[in-house]
Amino acid sequence: MIKNAVSNNQIFNPQDEACPVCAVFDHIYRTSSFQTEMKIPETVGEGYFRRIVVKPSLRLSVSDMTFHKRITMGEKQGSSLYSLAFCLGEGFLWRVEGNPKREYGIACGESCIFNRDQGISISSHHPGSRFWGIYVEFDLDIIAGFMQHRGKDHAGKNLFAGRNFLCNGKISPGIRLILNDMINCRYREQLKKIYLEGKILELVAVYLDETVFEDGARASAGKFSAYDREALYKARKILDENLATPPTLGKLAKMICLNEYKLKTGFKELFGLPVHAYIIDKRMELARLLIEEKQLLVTEAAPMVGYNDLSYFAERFRGKYGVNPSQYSKKV
Questions:
Q1: Greatest alpha-carbon span in the chain
Q2: Which CATH number fits domain 278-329: 2.40.50.140, 2.30.110.10, 3.40.50.1370, 1.10.10.60?
Q3: What is the mean pLDDT of the chain?
């Protein structure tokens, strides 16, 4: 049970006890304020670190920092919370002191879950490297609650039993959009707290659906042979990598060595959407990301996701998000 929002973690620089950056980080982690933000001093680098305590068992940190010189940070961890981290900038490594020492890493565009109750962790940030990411600290009861709704009692905690680190690969466009919403939240005070709590729960739900529940489906889908399941996951990977110019259903079936009937019925059963609907859904997520994050014009984004007919693109976009893409681009 998490009794308060003040972290027991200690932030320090093992090479410089007087490090001003680590001193401010340590102060931020020891405050129970709803939101605390630190701007990196110009003499050290640029960027910011923001920590938001939505509730004692649900905390959010956003960082976008670039240092002029090498900065080493140590963290003496004393929290029973887990962290769900998303790396948006350059990848980095950290090690956990112990016997034996453990080293972990995350690359740009990847996500991972790790246990914060591991002792002392050490990470180094190199000059010019953009340390940009977002992570959510949460109690495993949140995951257990989602699991129960899926008929998987106790599966949430069992998933992490004896595991300190769980990496689940690339950040999907859908999750990237949720992260953008969280980073760029325009609300304040209580309304912001309510908004972010909803967004964090949405993030965890989508993340679990794309990773944990997917793995469960892979293991428990008794209707499919192991060969068919692997072929269907290969089909989805092919589509994800070729959204603008996806292969025809017949060609896709040949590429994964399944007949078209198995491809159509199996894909919908395993992923919840027919192949064509899946392509449209993922195209729209990518289009919104291009408009929102890359600041592309609608006329630039549409062809990049496979639409040369702007009217047809607008119809699809409006069907998913309830607003025309031109109107949406004016808001971002």
A1: 66
A2: 1.10.10.60
A3: 84
